[in-house]
C-alpha cells in the first residue's frame, strides 16, 4: 500500500505546499492496537457518487479573461480546467444579466412589443461568455457540463418590487438610492402569472441557442435565489408558484422542444436553511419525474443536516451546491471595507486563509451530507471583487490585478485539494474520527485509490493515525492547514 500526504498552509497570505510519502507503520501488535487519535476508513460503506466540481462563467469572469494576453488567458483556463488545475467540469452560466454582468440586459429588449420573441438574440453572450466557454471545453481535462440559471425574467413581465420602510432605511444607510417601486430586473418583484408561458418559451429559446452553439447544456435551475429580493437582478417565487410554473409551463415547453431527456431541471437554487419547506411543496407525484435534482447555496450557514435529510428522502435526486462565495472584496471584510457585516480587523492575508478554511469546511460538510456536484461562484474577479453592475464586490478563487495578470489566493489551493484528488465517479465512503476539532471526508476513486481530506482549523499542530484495511499510518496535521492523503493499493 502506497500513500502520500499533500498539505497546504499559509505564510503571510501565500499558499505553501509540502508533500511527503507515508508508509504503513510496523505491523506489530502494539501498533495495531493504537486507539487514540485514530481516523478509521470503512470502504465497505459506500454512499453517493461524487460527480465533480466547477464554477460560474459569468459575463464578468469572461470579460476579465478576454482582457488577458493570450498566454495569460490560456494559463488561467488551464489553472481552472486543465489536468494540473482544478479539474473543473461543471460550469454555471446566467440566463440574461446577473449582478456579475457589466450592465443589465435581456435577450429580448421589449417582450410586450414582441410577444412572439422574434427579436430574441444571444449576441450579448457571443461577446465574452461563449468564446471563453468554447475555449474551456477545448482545454478541460473532463467533459464539461453546463448549468443555466435565470436571475430575472424580462422586467416588463414582472410586478413592481415592494420596498418596505425598513428596506428603504437600509438603502439610505448604505448610501444607495432607494429604489422606485416600478417593474425592474433588480430588487425582486414577481413574474405575473399571465406570462408564465411566455417565460417558459423564452427560457427554452435560450437553452436551444446555447445547444446550437455547441455548448453542452445539461442542467437548468428554475430561478436563482428563489426568495431573495436583492439589489441586483432577482425574482421572487413562492413554492406554489414554482410548482405551477414547472408543471404547467416549463416542463411541457421543454418536452415539446425535445429537451427533457437532455437537460435536467433543478429546483430551489437558494440557501440550505429554507430548502426543505420549498422542496416538500414542489415535489409530489406529479412533479417527481420532472425534477432531476436540488440545488442549494451556502450563504446562511452550514445546515448540513438539511442536505442530509433531503438526500435521505430523495436518494435518487442529484444534490448540487450551485453557488458560494465570501461576501467581501478580496482580503477585505466589513461595511466600509468592501463587504457585509461588522468591521473585521484581520489582516488581508489572514482573511484569505479564513475564506479558504470556510470553503473547505463547507465542501467537506456537504459531501458528508450527500452532495453529488459542487459549483463555485465566479471563476475569477478583479482586485475589488468585480466588475459588476451594482456596488460592492465579492472574492473568488482567482484574483485579476489591474494589469490583467492574476494571482491565486489560498482558496484556490484549498478547492484544488478536493477537486483535483476526488475524481469524477468517486464514491464517498464511511469513516469515523476521534474528535470535533477536525473536518474529515473520504472517497474511493474509480481507479481504487482512497482519498482522505483533513481540515485542521485550530491554531495548534496535531497529528493522527489513519487506519484502513488493517494498515495504519501516521498523518501530520499542522495548525491551520488542509491535508489530502492519497492511498494507492
From TrEMBL:
One BP term from GO: glucosylceramide catabolic process
GO molecular function: glucosylceramidase activity
Pfam families xrefs: Glyco_hydro_30, Glyco_hydro_30C
Domain Glycosyl hydrolase family 30 beta sandwich: 425-485
Family, similarity comment: Belongs to the glycosyl hydrolase 30 family.
Record PANTHER family: GLUCOSYLCERAMIDASE, LYSOSOMAL ACID GLUCOSYLCERAMIDASE
Protein name: Glycoside hydrolase
The organism of origin for this protein: Fusicatenibacter saccharivorans
